[in-house]
User: What shape does this take?
Amino acid sequence: MKQLKGTLFLVLSFCFVLSVTAQNKTISGKVTSQSDGMALPGVNVVVKGTTVGAATDFDGNYTINVSNNEAALVFSYVGYVTQEIVVGSKSEINVALVEDAASLDEVVVVGYGTRKKSDVTGAVSSVKSEELNAFPLLNAEQALQGRAAGVVVQSNNGGEPGAPINIKIRGNTSINASSAPLIVVDGFVGAVMPQPNDIQSIEVLKDASATAIYGSRGSNGVVLVTTKKGKSGRLSVELNSNYSIQNTANELDLLNADEFAAYQTAINPGYIQGPANTDWQDLLYRTGSTQNHQFSFSGGSDKMNFYASANYFKQEGVIINSEFERVSFLSNIDAQVTDKLKLGLNLFGSRGNKDGVPTQSTGETANGGGDDVVSLMFRFAPDLGILDENGLNTINGVGDDVDNPYAVATEGVNEIKTDNYRANLYANYDILENLTFKTTFGFSTANGTEGIFRPSTLITTAGGSTGGRATIANFKRTNLLSENYLTYTKEIGKGNLTLLAGYSYQKRSTDRFSAGAEGFTSDSFSYFNLGSGSTQLIPTSSFTESEIQSQFGRLNFDYDDKYLITATVRRDGASNFAKNEKYAIFPSGAIAWKISNEDFLKDSEKISNLKLRVSYGVTGNQSIDAYESLASFGSVFTPINGGTVINVTPNQVANPDLKWESSYQTNIGVDLGLFKNKISLSLDYYNIDTKDLIIQDSSQPEYLGFLNPASLRNVGEVNNKGFEISLNTRNITNEDFSWTTDFNWSTNKNEFVTLLDGQDIFQDASPGYFNIPRTHVLREGEAVGVFWGYEYRGVYQGGDFPAGTAILDGAEAGDQLFTDIDGSGDITTDDQKIIGDPNPDWTMGITNNFTYKNFDLNIFFQGSHGGDVMNLTNVQLFNGDSNATRDVLNSWTPSNTNTNIPRAKLRGKQITSRFVEDGSYIRLKNIALGYNLPEDITKKLGMASVRLAISAQNLLTITDYSGLDPEVSYGVVGQGSEASNTTNGFDFGNYPTVQSVNFSVNVKF
Amino acid sequence: MKTYKYIFLLIGLSIFGCSDLEEEPVGLLSPDGFFNTPKDIQTAANAAYGHMTHEDFWGRKMSLTIMLRGDMVDIGDPTTSTRRIEHNDFNVPADNGMISGYWLRVYQIIAAANQAIAGAESVDAADDVKNPVTAQAYFARAFAYFHLVRQFGDIPYLTEPITDLSASSSIGKTSAAEVYNNIIADLEFAKTWLPNTQEARSIPAKSAAHSYLALVYLTIGDYQKAYDEAKGVIDNEGTYNLGLEPDYQDLFDATKIDGSMEPIFALDFIGASDGDDGRDYQAALTGIRADEQYGIGGGWSVAVPSLEVYNTWDGRDYRKAVSLDTTGVFNGNVEPYTIFRDFHSRAVNRPHIAKYTRITGGAATNNGRGSNHNYSMMRYAEVLLIAAEALNEINPGAAEAYDYINRVRARARNSNGVTSGLYPQDVATGLTQEAFRDLVLEDRKWELAFEFKRWYDIARRKMGSEVFSASGLEGFKENFDPNQDYLFPLPADELARNPNLEPQNPGY
Assistant: This one.
């Protein structure tokens, strides 16, 4: 065993053999990590000013001889701050090294390889596992929130259990739905994120120099995830457990039954007040909880190491009947088969089960938007109870006939079960001393079932009309990947050359089918007995397949550790590209100058690091789904002669010249380290011109008559430019106390440079039942996704219109005044204009970490400034056909004319500037207090370390926004109405954001 | 040797896949090579008829729009959607939600028909084999454009499947006169090739094209041709297997209508649907709020005739009893229309339309959504009235015109299949041309009440200033503007998508 340790020690440490000159006194001691008290093996211990040195063993112990008491020992270790201690009379010196957040010698993962952080020429942000564990995360994506400049992370749907998380890097380079970055896990391109506890590090590649190696998939940025691996020699068992309670952060102040009846009577004289007084928010909200338990064990020998973990997560949402549960497993094995050959296997599997309630619904016209419990609980009449006098679920007393939210939440079933499996085998072979071949072969599959059931007791959501309705949709996605590349390294004088060349092939396929039935003999079947339905819905099935084959290469050359050059190129061919545009080439280049290594700065006391980086490159976005450039037929339900008949109808037009989007990106960055990197600062400026923007273009006239009235087209060019600051300071570093601050700030400005024929493209992101054809506009010279509507100018008091204003046809005193743009004297669609911009001026994150002895405190604020929010909830609540906020009590009446709220009246739902609000906020996203049990106690308990933590999320939000939460996401990717990246900033039916308090325990054996 | 072993392993792992990157979609139909037999033409033509049964079109949006614009049906529930009220009150903005709701659908009917017509050219079959099938597509195209041209006047007009997106996206409007000419040409093709009868009235036969030609000519005021075509249908009533349904009620009985000889072309809802594909809402829209009498959960009281419709309609007219419900059942008790509102604050104290609620067929539940109704787009009684109206214009006083109108009146006197009433009496000859014209329009009003015909009659005869005056059935409609409101606004966003469609119709 001891021999094994010794051997491993040699392997692990950056061993250098040292000659021994004098041996007067022997010092011994132990080196540990200050953050968790774990022993640090392989720490270099050098007698200052000499070549005498030693390294710690696996228990962190060292011995070294010094010549006299004046000698000083220097302890250095990768990723830790170097410490210097004068020997004095001591013979035992124990040292706790402080982790170096801004260490320049860290190794960061880049595409197809790793680089020393100090040698990186591109814009790369990195998040390490310690930061990942600073506070409990529901998912790994959240770890990036506020941690990396220029990276915006947001839930697709507030605090919904199992809601997908959106990552957006450097603004809106793409304007279509696919603005998500490429996720690469352990080299597997397009993988799902593993659990946060299993992650060793996350790197975010931002500029073209870093992402162009991923070619046609690089333009939205790349997130590289590395999972944990076993460490040789140390068998470690770890247990993480946390539990949180959650509550909704906010409620709307709505009318009670009496107020509501009075309000409705003003609109509809003779309104008959209902029998109840129901607070639907009270009925629907509850105290939610999450629990997460993770167990892992890892270790290894000199030939093999392994890491394995199991994870269980469960969340009960703050809305009744919404839950999410997930089990996942991960295992990594690496084996050094021969001196030259290394083999490894990564395995991942998970099962997610989301049992939800419908929220953020598209608001189908047919159901009057009645399939969204959040908007329903705001709009539903408070003077009705859950059941009517006949014992049936109540239907709204005003507006569209919609079921009450309690019934929708408790009686419907919305279940999504998703299984993910991934296996990735790699082999690394050293052909020559400086030539390595790596091949990976991986396969992943995602299988999902979505079951939806509406019992006959729900009247409006197709349930009642037909005696219940159930549908099942199934998908199976597979992804097969083979990547092969050679890496060649060569020292040329003072220069280091690294060359990379590779070939990659990837095939993805998706099988889908769905079936459904209506008219069940019983409401108890849920969606598990379609055969018993009296009416079978038309089943559907489909299969799509796409392939990408690529060649790629990279050159890295650094000279004298001062001048760095990186050049990459990738050629992608993809089957989903249109017929005439199958192949594309994506080059990039970057240079960096480590000024601090020049002679004139080398010995500077103040400047410990100064590096200038410049890069330029082209990346792509292949957001064309398979077959989307081909002409196709669809079909419609066609009853003829008492039955249905088969049919085909034009679905979309062929576009053989459809091109992928290309982003031309320039990045200029400076890295500055002051006072031994106590202060490290990175500044980055970027300019991205994205050409051939692809959009589901609804500017195609409807009279073309396609089933899909929008088709994919290249429509223009958008420019994004921005500036990012990332500042890390080690304010105080003592043995007992430390304080560090991480601050990042970023600003992004985007603008359409050209659009096809200079023509505006209008978008609609409001719920279908609003029947508003235009809510957003894309216009040359304007930012992406600005709001479109009428400009509200207050309440019309009667008489002549104030200059430049008018009212809608049929309006009168007490109604809304709008800007009369065309001066026609009345308000028509010609009087609509840009009334808001959802893009924030800047976003920021600031994290302060304090440690005192065994305690640590993490405080994380996040802020956003200058983005507008369109409060669609209020568009619904102020149009007279629903309940309303108590603000309507101040509506205009002949005796209450000094108000900004028009008279109580039924009016069409309109996008007006009255509902545009400032969405700026600062939020205390997290505060966490942790405690590491002292080593003597943990030893007695037989544990290596024990950590306890309590934390709170979203405790405090400072904002002027009147809705529930300024972090809105209706109409964003994958949710809402016509979801797209160009329709941000709308608030409607979002699952509420939650406040939570979390307790966690971490035990290592 | 050992080394080679590993190298083989590496090669084995790494050599994977080499592809030409061509897409070969399975399970996805494309226009290329689709059309080979007449059956393929039928498959494409079918879709045109499928689109017609969507909620956007006859299921709710378009049918309700033209019903509300007429002078008989007013808004009942005052809190119903603004986009509906806008049509009833002639306050229609260019982004009205009803129009933008059905505009696309009408063009989907046309696109499906165009696809079938173009596809037929690649089908290698004799004209007498394939043309009778293709003629269904011609009929569908004419039917769709006929609605559009009456509502919008000059419109974008396409006759081919779209292949060049940018060219098609920038076309200008075609004048209403030219659109009418094309509609007539399409109907002539259909009349030439469609068989005399089909197995169901939801498939157009020669009679459908023939009758629609009469209506198109009537609409554009070519009364000679309108009469000729209508007469042609009447002369062929045996060949076409047409006749008047003995009992007027049975026309609105979803359980009996399939066997009737009166419908000439109908949309056949079957009580099943796929979402809003194939689902109708007329029973819900016209039914009485909270009414229990038909066991369908009451209606929504959205489209309810004005009280003057009830007051002016002669109580002896059997059609009045078929068309209107004056009582409802609430909490188990029969109650008169005068107190409907006591039972629901969104109800209205007026008789309601009964044609769509009374016998919806087995499948309809829940406000009567998803009924088994067959909606007659054209029925034989209308052909008789077209003949009468047209003949009066070209040959005033012709006895033949009186015969047609009296045939319709005679049937109206039937109840349960036997002549039981004396009203409406036969019209005695000797009326002036103008008096007869008024009479036939009045007879259309009652015979075809609530069958989505009235607005088009008002528009073609330019009766708005009269019927929307204070003496009209709905009282004075202050916003009605004869220089604007006979045409609807083109959808504002469509004009934005293709500015070559400017100018907007006057007044919008």
In short: Residues 127-152 of chain B form the longest helix (26 residues).
